[in-house]
Amino acid sequence: MTYEHIAFEIHEGVATVTLNRPDKLNAWTRLMEREVRDAMEQSEQDDAVRVIILTGSGRGFCAGADMDLLSGIEDGSEKREPGAVYGTRPYNVAVPADYQTQYSYFPSLSKPVIAAINGPAAGLGMVVSLYCDMRFASRDAIFMTAFAKRGLIAEHGISWMLPRLIGHSAALDLLLSSRKVTAEEALQLGLVNQVHEADSLLPAVQAYAKDLATNVSPRSMAVMKRQVYNAQFQSLNEAVAIGNEEMLKSFSSEDFKEGVAHFVEKRAPNFSGR
């Protein structure tokens, strides 16, 4: 597929999806939405891909919904389907349907999705970043919910996800005020995992992703990711029971055998993901 609003490449086990409308600060369009989904599906289905990076071109990550899209909603020409499930099938039937909707589907991918936030992430751009598994930010990054200043509300599940990342009170602060949050404050809040200088952000994310792709069991990553997201809907007893069951399954996996073998033989691992 030829893309117009994103760039997509795969290198050494890492797929990189780049929002590619730099002149518009990568403002989100319906075409971009479909292209991102297609690239994510390709990455999920490709056994050679073990980690996915989502980033933006130019000086922004994503400035939110394109104003033409918002104008279309206002005049009724843009039809919206709140909570619509896009795609023909769920990625992972072992995770709740909550993670299969229009923007919440990244957690249903079996592979880690890392956001490399290189600049402003506002409104829908911030929502998309929250559904990534981890967020690494440039010192130039700015976070802003924006909804309240547009006469809108906490959309696309951000009212559920944001408090789980930074807490109830801090989430309300960011939502109600729509104020700008710097990368340093985002780090203090727990909104991002790491902060880097602008020119070293993508190399740092790529190095982290390559380490996962090279040295970590794909099977382990997929199971642990599923465990963490499913635990949001489980009791402690359920999480313990599932963990015990998954550990027994791990003992009979090829990746467990390889994990022991490469450690004993003092060599680089060669995990199969099975």
Description:
The structure is a single chain. The strands form 2 sheets. A 6-stranded mixed beta sheet has the order 1-2-3-4-6-9, with helices on both faces. A 3-stranded mixed beta sheet has the order 5-7-8. Strand 3 (51-56), helix 2 (67-75) and strand 4 (113-117) form a beta-alpha-beta unit. It folds into 2 domains: 6-212, 2-enoyl-CoA Hydratase, Chain A, domain 1, CATH 3.90.226; 217-264, Lyase 2-enoyl-coa Hydratase, Chain  A, domain 2 (Orthogonal Bundle). 41% of the residues lie in helices and 14% in strands. The chain has 10 helices and 9 strands. It has helices spanning 30-45, 67-75, 124-130, 158-166, 168-177, 183-189, 201-215, 218-230, 236-251, 254-264; strands at 6-11, 14-19, 51-56, 113-117, 121-122, 134-138, 142-144, 181-182, 194-196.
